[in-house]
Amino acid sequence: MTFEQNLSMLFSDLNIPEVFISEYMCNANGDYVKIYLYCLFLCKYGSEVSPLDLSKRLCLPLKTVEQGLKYWEENHVLVKQQSTYTLADLKKVEVEKLYKPKLTSSVEDAIEANTKNVMRNQIINTINNTFFQGVMSPAWYTDIDNLFTKYQFDEHVMYSLFKYCFDRQALHKKYLYAVAEGWASNNIKTADDLDKYYTEYEKVSQIKKTIGKKLGLSRKLSQYEDSYVDKWVIEYGYPMEAIELALKKTTSKTNPSFDYIDKIITNWHERNLSTVDDISAFLKEQKQKQKEIKVMETGKPSIPKYSDTQTNQYNDLTKFYANV
Description:
By secondary structure, the protein is mainly α. 65% of the residues lie in helices and 2% in strands. Helix 3 (51-58) packs across helix 4 (62-74), helix 7 packs parallel to helix 9 (155-167) and helix 11 (191-214) crosses helix 12 (223-235).
């Protein structure tokens, strides 16, 4: 006995996993979402189609279709086997993420740990309502729990982390974890640590702009130039006034490099010259020594050059006989 459902396409529905919307759609290109939805539709009817057919049917360039298929492959939404594409079971994928041993804690464990701390629970609810419109995916609860455990962030820092990524339109896990790693490398754990970091960051940013202006650069500093300035300000602790003394020493150079400036400033640091007064006194002393060396060089008795005046006189026979 066989039962069949006789419904035309007009009355059929396409089921889209909500986890696709919460975990994948928000970070994907609009054309890629379009490709996924149509592939989901084709899978329902077991249709065969080529990338070229997709390009024509969706009114998209063939290159865009190929890039979209590759994007969903890389995000494990599509699984390619030779010429066949299979749509992954996204619900199963997320469950495996949640319950994968030693890498993440389960949703239940995360919620249980969070309820022990009222403030933490409030922050998570605030993150959910502020950045996810109250429909945050269960996987995010686990990630937040992991972030608290791994980096020891307090609640204020955790909220600031999500806000930082949200404001930059990059609220996805890869970017969020990268920022978290950066903050942790700067020893940020508390609200005070974060405020201090932002203050230092603004200070360094202003110094970088000033250096670029004084050097007449019409561009932003490169990554390598940035690292030099970070070293001078953060590691060595030099203010802009001290760095400017080094910049003044480049006036005789046609194209002064940051490497040249770095050698000057590093030399000061190695000499334990920690303040502008220390550096100024050192430069004054060096200038005085150069003057003394110059005076010593110019004060040496000069050796008279050999003159052939007498020889010339002997060549003049009239003068020779006149002296006889």
